[in-house]
Every structure is written in C-alpha cells, then in structure tokens.
Amino acid sequence: MRRLLAAAFLAAATALTAGSATAQTLRIALREDADLLDPALARTYVGRIVFAGMCDKLFDINEKLRIVPQLATGYEWADPKTLLIHLRPGVLFQDGEKLDAAAVKYTLDRDLTMPGSFRRSEVSAIDHVEVVDPLTVRVVLKSPSGAFLAQLTDRAGMIVAPKAAEQEGKNFALHPVCAGPFSFVERVPQDHITLQRFPQYWDAKDIHFDKVIYRIIVDSSARVANLQAGAVDLVEYILPTDAAAVKADPRLRLVVSDSLGYFGITNNISNGPRANNPYGKSALVRQAFSLAIDRAALVQVVYNGMYAPTMQAVPASSPFYDPDLKVPARDVAKAKALLAQAGVKTPVSLELMVPNNPDTMQAAEVIQSMASEAGFDVHIRATEFASSLSLSEQGDYQAYAVGWSGRADIDGNVYSFLHGKQSQNVTGYANPAVDKLLDEARSLTDVAQRQKLYAQMWDQETQDLPITYLWIPRNIVGMTAKLQGFRPVPDGMIRLQGLEMAK
After folding, report:
1. Which domain holds residue 291?
2. Predicted confidence (pLDDT) per residue in 167-213, tens digit
3. Distance in angstroms (rounded) separating the CA atoms of residues 414 and 264
4. Which of 149, 193, 364, 496 is the most buried (most CB within 10 A)?
5. In this structure, are residues 315 and 321 in contact, taking their beta carbons and an 8 Å threshold?
6. 394 belongs to a structural domain
7. pLDDT tens digits for 120-171?
8. Nearest to 160 by CA among 109, 219, 213
C-alpha cells in the first residue's frame, strides 16, 4: 500500500512539474511491455496498441465490426480467388519512401516467407501477389476464403517500408518504419515507448498530439493512481475491481465495451519433452482439470462478474458463436472419476505458467485452490509476459494461462492456435479431423456453412482440450474526462485519429 501511495504522490508531482511542456503529449498506460515492434514477428496485445499509433493497415474495422478502408481506398473480388486492392494515393512511409503496390507485395511476401513470421498462418491462403499498377495490387488465393480480408485489418495488413526493412534486416523491430500517424523515437524496456507525430501522414488533420508516450505500468492499482494523479491521460486496461473508483471520479471517464478475445489455458500436448506428463499426454486428465474449475465463480471473484464464462474462442456477439456449446457446471466428483479412468496417481502435479499481472495471478490462485479439491497439485510459475510467450514457443511449459485479444472473424481466433504446425500452435496439437474442418471453414464464404463446420470442430476440441477456454473479457478503458474523440472498437485498440484534449 505504501508503494502505491508513493506512486500516486510521485505521479502527482510529475504532472505538476510537467505542466505545459507536455500539453501536446498523450500519455497512455499499458498493462505490460510489448514484444518485438515488427508486425511480422509481434504477438502481444499491447504491442498492437502501439502499432495502432505507428502502423496503418490496408483495412480497419469500425465499432460495428465492419471492414473499412485505411491505406486502401477499396477492394473488389475479380473472382472468388482474386482480390484487387486499390491503394490510397500520396501515402508516405515515415522515412519518406512512397507506399505503393510494390510495397504491399513486399510486405505480404515478407509475412509469408520471413523466418519466425507469426503472420504466415494468417495469410497462408495467398498463392501469390501481383503489382497491377502503382496503386493496384492483385492478391491471388489458393482457394476462396471468407476470412482473408479480415486478416488485413490487423498486423497482416500493416505495410512496412521496404527500404528500411531491407536495410535493418533482423533489427527492423528496433527501428520500425511504417505509414502511420506517429513514427518511432525510442524504447526503454519495461518503462516506456515514445512516438512522435509524422507531419506528412496522409490523415494529418485528425491527429492532434505531437507526441505519444506509452508507459508500462504492470500493477493495476498503480495505473489507476497515475490516472487519478494526472500522470497518464488514458489507461488501456482497468480491472473490473477498479472500475467503480474510476467511474466515481468526476475528473475521469470509464468506457466499457464488448471485446473479441478470450482467456484460457494453453496446454502443452506435444511441444517438446515438457509435454511428457499425465496432463500433457491424457485428454482425460485435461478434461478433469477443466471440470474442476467453476468458471462463473472464478470471474465473479477476480473480475466482479463483468466477464463471461466460456468454452469457446469467440464472444456471444460473434456470428460464429455456438449457443449449443454450454459451459459445464463444476463437477469435482466427475473430475476425480476421470482421473481414476486415466489411471494416474493423485495428486497430479501440474506447473501453471502465468503472466505476472496481479489479476491473472489471482485467477491462477483461485484455479489452484479449485483444482486441488479434484486431485491436482498446481504449482504457479509467475513469469514476465513477453518472456512467457517466448517460453511457450520453446515448449518450456506444461500449462500456460494466457489470453488472445481476438479478431473480427473466428478464423483469427482459432486457425493459428488449433491447426497443426501453424505459427502460434505452441501446444503441438495436431488432429487431422480438426485441421480438415478448419481448412474447409476458412475456404468458404457462406457464414451458415462455416458455422456448421466450426460446431463439428468444437465437438473434437472440447474432447482433446489443447486449449481450455475460461472466459470472455470486456474492454474497460479509463481516461481523463478532458480527452475527446475516443472510439470504443471491439478489438480494444487505442486509435489516435480524432483524439484531442478539450480546450
């Protein structure tokens, strides 16, 4: 408590001494540090928030999840496998290079071929990309896809400057260059990321700050204290337990909206030697663990009941939500019976890796307590978030409590994680039946047909449990009441266009 009070007083002092010097600076508090600032290599949610200030996309989504042009002016399907993208004229990268069709081709090819690219699975439907003319790109797909265009509304659609990317090579993440409203200035790991306004931005009229500083403040109470003291102008993540305090402060504003993502437990099934344990090798043991968790009680205790318990990767607002996939009631007796059926010795030892945020740590402790009653001995491994991502890629974990911020199309929430050998499938899960259903579903454009295939996929996933889905979060953002123009889009990104301080 003393540390939090000290943080609040320090924040107040900082705000008073900063005065007019920071009048044109927007200060945004992030819950954790971003990972690599390269759209092809990045994985973190907060990294996407930084990219929103630095890297425009071919397309964006609006508050109603409609796809709208950004770097593109429009598109058309020449046939079911051929997408023509028309580019905005006069757009410059932050190093002065022109954004044209060749740059778009370069970026999409880079996403497909760059070692370690996490965008590869997102754009794997591409057969090849052609430059029609300086402002027209032809993307030829291997098969029709109802999900492909939505992929271009996020990191796969962020176009990087070819000259800078070639010059920097592996170091591009240290000096990223895109075509967004702010250019990269500096980064101090675990402290802050600074961007400055790019004067030649194509939509400069909607940018009202000279500088943006993203401050990393892991502790939720400290984020709120900094907001109350005026040391930050916007907090991208307010815990539900802190929401009332922000809402009650007349100097602040709370914005709550639906999200697209989920939180769950990613299970190491076949990613290296750490999968060689009863939990990793037996679906029955994973089913028992799932049944030991009271999801409704968990979100009530940790998140004041503001989040929705779930067994799937999309929210109820998604057209791909499966209403028949019910969240099971906690059943300790059945969980014990499944462990007996699996023939494992109890208690079953399990290491649960958890990002060291206070709320996820609390959730892990609740899960630990619940699971112990069913015959599990859970050991919590608190890990810095970016490090936990790296460890999961290496297979250095047994179970990993982690969320996904979500995409407008369900393909973005499941394909890369559940399809065998995809870039973000750190579980090592590979079920040919699931792969076939995911491939077929992304190749269709009819929503009803896709829904049926995903329903079949969930039937198998809930048996295998490569991921144990727990809850659907909400976007809860706090800001100074003076900040105007904020748009709550379900993806949770902080769009800087239109943001300004009241005069």
Report:
1. 262-472
2. 999 999 999 999 999 999 999 999 999 999 999 999 999 999 999 99
3. 13
4. 193
5. yes
6. yes
7. 999 999 999 999 999 999 999 999 999 999 999 999 999 999 999 999 999 9
8. 109
Q: Is the pTM of this model over 0.90?
A: no
Kindly state whether residues 339 and 203 are assigned to the same domain: no
Cβ atoms of residues 180 and 198 within 8 Å: yes
Tell me if 466 sits within 8 A of 418, measured CB to CB. yes
User: Residues 397, 351: contact at Cβ < 8 Å?
Assistant: yes
CA distances (Å), origin 353, targets 267, 358, 425:
10, 14, 17
Output the six-digit token pair for 358.
């206070």
Residue where a domain terminates, one of 104, 135, 165:
165
- Rounded alpha-carbon distances, angstroms, from residue 345 to 277, 286, 294, 314, 336: 11, 14, 23, 35, 11
pLDDT of residue 11: 44
Helix (H) or strand (E) holding 380: strand 376-383
User: How far is Cα 317 from Cα 26, in angstroms, rounded to an integer?
Assistant: 32
The total domain count for the chain is 3
β-bridge pairing 25-30 and 234-235 = parallel
24's CB contacts (< 8 A; 6+ apart) are 209, 210, 211
Residue 207: HSE in the Cβ half-sphere, 13 Å Cα cutoff: 22
CATH number at residue 240: 3.40.190.10
**What pLDDT, on the 0 to 100 scale, is given for residue 503?**
85
Q: Please, how many CA atoms are within 13 Å of residue 113, restricted to the half-sphere of its CB? A: 9
Residue 37 included in any domain: no
Cα 315 to Cα 262: distance, rounded to the nearest angstrom? 8
Task: Tell me the C-alpha distance between 319 and 147, whole Å.
Answer: 13
Looking at the domain assignment, is residue 49 inside a domain? no
Question: Would you call 41 helix, strand, or coil by DSSP?
Answer: coil
Structure tokens at 283: 């679906």
The neighbour count for residue 193, using CB atoms within 10 Å, is 26
pLDDT score recorded for residue 262: 97
Q: How far apart are CA 331 and CA 384, in angstroms?
A: 33
| Cβ proximity of 322 and 462 under 8 Å | no
Judge contact between 28 and 49, C-beta under 8 A: yes
| pLDDT < 70 regions, the chain | 1-23
Round to whole Å and give the CA distance between 343 and 334: 14
465 neighbors 292 (Cβ within 8 angstroms): no
Radius of gyration of the chain (CA): 23
- Judge residue 454's burial from the number of C-beta atoms within 10 Å of its C-beta, 0-12 exposed, 13-18 middle, 19 or more buried: buried
Task: Output the pLDDT for position 18.
Answer: 40
Determine the pLDDT at residue 423: 79
Instruction: Provide the token pair at 21.
Output: 């010097």
In a domain, 121, yes or no: yes
63 and 141 inside one domain: yes
The one-letter amino acid at 376: F
